[in-house]
Write a structure and sequence with these properties.
2 helices, 45 residues, elongated, 93% helix
Length: 45
């Protein structure tokens, strides 16, 4: 059980890192302002 919890925490950390990198890449490609507006729109849904 302890190893399962630890594994879940590690997987969540890697997932968050991938999401952050994807958002940063999107901001570089589309521009910061467009990325901010897109994330705000997602937050409203």
């Amino acid at each position: 059980i302890v190893l399962g919890i630890l594994a879940s925490i590690i997987v969540m950390w890697f997932s968050r890192q991938r999401e952050f990198r994807a958002d940063a890449g999107g901001a570089r490609l589309a521009g910061r302002d467009k990325m901010v507006r897109a994330l705000e729109a997602l937050q409203r849904t």
